[in-house]
Amino acid sequence: MVKLKSNDDKEFEVEEAAVIQSEMIKNMIEDGCATSVIPLPNIDSKTLIKVIEYLNKHINMGKAAETGEEDDLKEFDEQFVNMGWEELFDVIMAANYLNIHELMELCCQSAADRLKNKSVRAVREMLKITNDLTEEEEQEIINDAPWAFEGPEIDDTVN
Amino acid sequence: MSDIPPEVIDEILSRLPVKSLLRFKISLPRVPPKGEGKYMFFDQICGGFGYDSLHDDYKVVRIVQCVFSNGNLLSETMIYSLKMGVWKDGEDCPYWLVKEDFGTYAAGALYWLGFKESHGELILVSLDLGSERFEQVLYPENLGKPCRLNLAALGDCLCLLAASGHVVTRMDVKNHVDVWVMKAYGVEQSWVKLFTVEQLEGRQHFSYMRPIAYSMTGGEVLLEMDNRKFLWYNLEKKSLKHAKIGGGLNSFESFVNFGTLVPLYGRGNEKDSKKGA
């Protein structure tokens, strides 16, 4: 078992087979740096619970394919990303930090699906981008490419 | 939610279709050209126009490309058939094309220079307008190591202009351009070096040169230099002479134009095509 500690000082025990889906922790274990508790200063316990839930479910990816549990896993993934925008981003950041390829893939695809066809304003807000165009510059772009400013504003896929 | 690092935004954006990306480019902070890829991607639109003899059709090609700072390439090709009067999806171009507004058309295919990998060598890319497939076309075997490559069309053949920068002190030749012609589409062995234009200090100095057309007899080739002058190259005597044009223009652009009374538009309801061959 490997012990992980979130930034709000909660400890979690995870099977080594599950936790090595994280390239970062796998490297730490291989280098012998994971003898005691591994502190994760970037991840809060709420997010870490989600990540561990994912790791445990995906522990035997290879076996799942053989035994026909693939559909089961697919369904789990669909359910898994059914979360709020901010929560999804917390998981993406954690997956990025821990370097869990499959989880990154899953969550980024979900984020992309939600961003697709959104208006310029919605995208800025969702990705926390400050508008650096002046009013005139923006108007010029609106005139050149009015289609880009159409599209739904923030909706329930974002919450 | 904390600030999102650019590489994470890259990961998300690389999963979106091109249209969404073009829209997002507007929402993102502007990218200084060739700047450190802090903000996601560069994009470009290339195009082309030409005749597809297989289907007796004229086609317009539009290629939209985006490159992410992680090196991923996203490419979308649309091809318009004048005969059908519709746009349809084409094969995604697997190469990053060097931006030119229009590809070079010769004998049923469009050509661009491009890259296979982000740090790879410049390659020649063709799009056959009949099969609508992209392919890499090999350079002439003994091309050497030119310092600059350009494309042009001469007659019905593709021309590869290879500029080299040797310094030959005795003759004071600083530079020369080899004009290669591909006689058969996509056949590496069919490249022929047609002629070489040497750059002479002072008298005949140019930074850019391209062939325009053969003379009526086929014995001379009209060249354009630096958008400023025309010259005739005599293939037999290997000599150059100035071609006089009236009007006293300081600077110009030239296009090869074929006069025809056959309208380009097909069965669709297109108005006059602006790109009259």
From TrEMBL, chain A:
<dbReference type="InterPro" id="IPR036296">
    <property type="entry name" value="SKP1-like_dim_sf"/>
</dbReference>
<dbReference type="GO" id="GO:0005737">
    <property type="term" value="C:cytoplasm"/>
</dbReference>
<dbReference type="Pfam" id="PF03931">
    <property type="entry name" value="Skp1_POZ"/>
</dbReference>
<comment type="function">
    <text>Involved in ubiquitination and subsequent proteasomal degradation of target proteins. Together with CUL1, RBX1 and a F-box protein, it forms a SCF E3 ubiquitin ligase complex. The functional specificity of this complex depends on the type of F-box protein. In the SCF complex, it serves as an adapter that links the F-box protein to CUL1.</text>
</comment>
<dbReference type="GO" id="GO:0005634">
    <property type="term" value="C:nucleus"/>
</dbReference>
<comment type="subunit">
    <text>Part of a SCF (SKP1-cullin-F-box) protein ligase complex.</text>
</comment>
<keyword id="KW-0833">Ubl conjugation pathway</keyword>
<dbReference type="InterPro" id="IPR016897">
    <property type="entry name" value="SKP1"/>
</dbReference>
<comment type="pathway">
    <text>Protein modification; protein ubiquitination.</text>
</comment>
<dbReference type="InterPro" id="IPR016072">
    <property type="entry name" value="Skp1_comp_dimer"/>
</dbReference>
<feature type="domain" description="SKP1 component POZ">
    <location>
        <begin position="1"/>
        <end position="59"/>
    </location>
</feature>
<dbReference type="InterPro" id="IPR001232">
    <property type="entry name" value="SKP1-like"/>
</dbReference>
<comment type="similarity">
    <text>Belongs to the SKP1 family.</text>
</comment>
<dbReference type="GO" id="GO:0009867">
    <property type="term" value="P:jasmonic acid mediated signaling pathway"/>
</dbReference>
<feature type="domain" description="SKP1 component dimerisation">
    <location>
        <begin position="102"/>
        <end position="148"/>
    </location>
</feature>
<dbReference type="Pfam" id="PF01466">
    <property type="entry name" value="Skp1"/>
</dbReference>
<dbReference type="GO" id="GO:0016567">
    <property type="term" value="P:protein ubiquitination"/>
</dbReference>
<protein>
    <recommendedName>
        <fullName>SKP1-like protein</fullName>
    </recommendedName>
</protein>
<dbReference type="InterPro" id="IPR016073">
    <property type="entry name" value="Skp1_comp_POZ"/>
</dbReference>
<dbReference type="GO" id="GO:0097602">
    <property type="term" value="F:cullin family protein binding"/>
</dbReference>
<dbReference type="GO" id="GO:0031146">
    <property type="term" value="P:SCF-dependent proteasomal ubiquitin-dependent protein catabolic process"/>
</dbReference>
<dbReference type="InterPro" id="IPR011333">
    <property type="entry name" value="SKP1/BTB/POZ_sf"/>
</dbReference>
Automatic annotation (TrEMBL), chain B:
<dbReference type="InterPro" id="IPR036047">
    <property type="entry name" value="F-box-like_dom_sf"/>
</dbReference>
<protein>
    <recommendedName>
        <fullName>F-box domain-containing protein</fullName>
    </recommendedName>
</protein>
<feature type="domain" description="F-box">
    <location>
        <begin position="1"/>
        <end position="24"/>
    </location>
</feature>
<dbReference type="InterPro" id="IPR001810">
    <property type="entry name" value="F-box_dom"/>
</dbReference>
<dbReference type="Pfam" id="PF07734">
    <property type="entry name" value="FBA_1"/>
</dbReference>
<dbReference type="InterPro" id="IPR050796">
    <property type="entry name" value="SCF_F-box_component"/>
</dbReference>
<dbReference type="Pfam" id="PF00646">
    <property type="entry name" value="F-box"/>
</dbReference>
<dbReference type="InterPro" id="IPR006527">
    <property type="entry name" value="F-box-assoc_dom_typ1"/>
</dbReference>
<dbReference type="InterPro" id="IPR017451">
    <property type="entry name" value="F-box-assoc_interact_dom"/>
</dbReference>
